[in-house]
Amino acid sequence: MAAKSSKDIRNESRFMVLRTVFAQHTVTRAQISAETALSPATVTTLVGELVEEGVLREAGQVSSQGGRPTTLFQANPGRGALLAVDVAETYVRVDLFDVSLARLDQERMELAPGAQTIETVAEHIRGCVETLLHRHPELEGDVLGAGISLPGQVDPVRGVDVFAPNWDWHEVPLCAALEEAVPVPVRVDNPLMALATGELWFGAGRRFRQFVSVNLGTGVGAGIIVDGQLLRGRGNSAGEWGHTTLIWNGRTCSCGRSGCVEAYVGVEGIRATLAEIAPEHELLEVPHHRDFIERLMRAEVAGDAAAQRALLRTGDYLAAGIGNLVNLLNPEHVSVLGWITRYAGAELHDRVRERIAQECLPGPSSTLSIEFTEADGEGVSLGMAVLALEAFLERVGLPSPSSALTPAPPASGGGSAPGWAVPHGGLAARRR
Amino acid sequence: MAAKSSKDIRNESRFMVLRTVFAQHTVTRAQISAETALSPATVTTLVGELVEEGVLREAGQVSSQGGRPTTLFQANPGRGALLAVDVAETYVRVDLFDVSLARLDQERMELAPGAQTIETVAEHIRGCVETLLHRHPELEGDVLGAGISLPGQVDPVRGVDVFAPNWDWHEVPLCAALEEAVPVPVRVDNPLMALATGELWFGAGRRFRQFVSVNLGTGVGAGIIVDGQLLRGRGNSAGEWGHTTLIWNGRTCSCGRSGCVEAYVGVEGIRATLAEIAPEHELLEVPHHRDFIERLMRAEVAGDAAAQRALLRTGDYLAAGIGNLVNLLNPEHVSVLGWITRYAGAELHDRVRERIAQECLPGPSSTLSIEFTEADGEGVSLGMAVLALEAFLERVGLPSPSSALTPAPPASGGGSAPGWAVPHGGLAARRR
Ligand SMILES: [Zn+2]
Ligand SMILES: [Zn+2]
Asked: Which of A313, A328, B239, B272 shows the greatest Cβ crowding within 10 Å of its Cβ?
């Protein structure tokens, strides 16, 4: 079982340099060094490598206080483009980014209910990509890679969508279909990891090394950041907070368990809460998730008592769910993201704020900050563009660690048997 | 926000060398290198430092296959002794270890209910320590340090027991009282961290880099190991799985919340389950926790239907609680420890085994192993002896990282405000 190597450190340092450049747009090496606490020599080496690869470029000079001019650096938009694909419940969206992570263009196709087969999805992706590349002939040959976000449990190493609880995918072989649809190297991941990557690069990750990003949408989940890195777990499915228990033996969840957080805090959970409060409420019939939430909010503002109670109760559930994360992980910070915050963020925030102290142990809550970020729904594609960029950098020999996806090495001196691996001889086998 | 330094790597490597020596008792440098994947040169340096400090010593020679003799190393029991103090609900126990972590002796005093003040506890610790040192005059001046495990949320940096839910301690200043009671440098921690440290050094930590150790006792909790290191969180209270929700608005928990895992899986939780099934059951009157569990098991074996149902239901709760950890963290492995496993491990194990697949998402459960370890209750003191040894090594300039306790550095470019730190301007302040 190997410790971290100096290569790992180099990769983590490269990540911090890149993140500083992307977050601050134009920086000197001295500013990078101040922000990252890396030595000036290390920064010079790492920036040099990235300039040589064309990912960064010089952007003029500024005079330092002593009067000596010093070089500015920025991401190089001319280096090429990245495709970011967001496959959601109801649509497929493809965004085109340049290497400075500026969004150039976007295409979107609706997914008819029941049409969520891998063939349809791949065809929609191909359609969007072709349209985009047709509109941008200047990028021909310059697309460096694509990042594709797929719902459910995605294994980026095996390129397989292991399990999509809301769909009917089980062990779907994605690689062939997607690589055929997209004419560049493809990196797959799930929306939780994409959002958390965005938060690590551009959000709370710049201020905290231990934090959780909570995503509220049709599905709900969390990104767990430990020591400045995204926790992926054994098979890239860490963060499935939506499928932890809120009420044992409670509502049936899309995953097959009962009483999961998602069944109370996800959109269908909010709908179920409203139905418990007002079984005949007219909004229960609104099928589209965003319409439902938007109209629920309007009803709440207009004084609809059932809508108000449903939102309050959702806030109570959310506070308990966040309290669980805080008590278990004792993070410095929690970011609440996801499209639901755009519509219902203020109401949920107020209720969580009222309740959170009761839901957290005194120790962890005394040092905690919580921030609700009104998201515009672009977080997943931004995160996938970052992951596509990281995959490209890895291919050219400049890896950064939030893309580290090597599966756990085989254990030395032991062997981690798959499945339930209770040793022969029963429970008393290990006694201390 | 600094990346890992090469000093961190050195410390982690030292930890792996120490762990290998302690686990295998007598090893060659080549064996250490094979076990840790560290280079022979690194192993030679690290072993050399530890020999120089007297923590390791040469232990003869063996012939390698080529015939050339090679040196064996082992921990040096003659280097000194360590005190490990376990302050539990009903007793104070002090164990004496040598530096090879062999247990030399033990003293124990009962704590009367209601006598859990810091003064009484300190006095009991002092009594036990004095008795032990009196019995071992040969150790005079050779006790290198003490590790003291205290229930509740302990802050090893500030030396304060922040919050003990089952007792009535809030922000108790421990240092003065304990340092007066124990004539050597003191390292405080909580039993969860102590148990997880033991598991990291001697148990699953030798086979897995991502795992969770679950502790079942009067209180319940978890040790979370990420990338080979114990997750402590912002204020050393990570792992409070016992105070995450199993049933929202359910049973009142000792922490003040409702429906926590501990209120179902801890001893008083099992008692409450039995009371729900058979409100007049005679075992409900057994006050002592171990007696209660032991007699419950005897009743179960004798065919007492209520006892059988209570244990089954406890297994169901436990499976759901473990499922939550698995879904959230996607670990390679879960170790179930704690004194309850000594009495009820086989029954709980069988039920968890039956139920766990239903409680876990298919991805994480397909690669998971779970092991119930019949513990003899010595885990906490062993873990505290390890932590005391680590604290000693840190004082002599040879730190190993599972003792890393520096609080999170102030964030660069941000500032992590304490408390609820929603930015001025409200929720829409950050929009992406
Ligand atoms: Zn679920
Ligand atoms: Zn509790």
From this structure: A328
Q: Is the residue at B420 inside a domain? A: no
Task: Give Cβ neighbours of residue A181 (< 8 Å, ≥ 6 apart).
Answer: A122, A123, A125, A126, A129
B223 plus B185 within the same structural domain: no
- Does residue A355 share a domain with residue A218? yes
Task: Assess whether B87 and B40 both reside in one domain.
Answer: no
Residue A127 domain-assigned?
A: yes
Residues A119 and A156 in one domain: yes
CB contact under 8 A, B423 and A208: no
Q: Which of A75, A100, A125 is the last residue of a domain?
A: A75
Contact flag B374-A431 (C-beta cutoff 8 Å): yes
Residue of A227, A255, A420 lying closest to B369 (CB–CB): A420
Domain membership flag for residue B365? yes
Domain that holds residue A14: 6-75
How close is the nearest chain B Cα to the Cα of A302, in Å?
21
Q: How much is the ipTM here?
A: 0.89
Q: How far is the CA of A187 from the centre of ligand 2 (A)?
A: 41
Shortest Cα distance from B315 to chain A (angstroms)? 13
With contacts defined as CB-CB under 8 Å, which chain B residues touch A346?
426-427
Separation of B241 CA from ligand 1 center, angstroms?
Answer: 19
Task: Provide the shortest C-alpha distance from residue B128 to chain A (in Å).
Answer: 23
- Given a cut of 90, is residue A343 above it in pLDDT? no
With respect to residue B421, please indicate whether it lies within any of the assigned structural domains.
no
A210 lies in the same domain as A235: yes
Tell me: do B391 and B356 sit in the same domain: no
Please tell me whether residues B98 and B108 are part of one structural domain.
yes
Q: Which residue of B has its CA nearest to A258?
A: B359
Boundary residue ending a domain (B56, B75, B94): B75
Kindly report the CATH number assigned to the domain that includes residue A37.
Answer: 1.10.10.10
Q: How far is B66 from chain A (nearest CA, A)?
A: 23
Find chain B residues with C-beta within 8 A of A352's C-beta: none
Of B237, B321, B420, the CB nearest to A363: B237
Mean pLDDT of A206-232: 92
- Name the minimum distance, in Å, from the CA of A155 to any CA of chain B: 9
CB contact under 8 A, A416 and B237: no
pLDDT tens-digit map of A257-314: 999 999 999 999 999 999 999 999 999 999 888 899 999 999 999 999 999 999 999 9
Whether B283 and B388 map to the same domain: the answer is no
Q: B336 to chain A: nearest residue by CA?
A: A427
Q: Which ligand is nearest to the CA of B362?
A: 1
Return the residue of B nearest to A361 by Cα.
B255
Question: CATH no. for residue B357?
Answer: 3.30.420.40
Q: What is the pLDDT of residues B211-229, one digit of tens each?
A: 999 999 888 999 999 988 8
- pTM of the predicted model as reported, rounded to 2 decimal places: 0.89
> Which candidate from A226, A233, A362 shows the least CB-CB separation from B331?
A233
**Pairwise CB contact (< 8 Å): A248 & B317:** yes
Domain total in chain A? 3
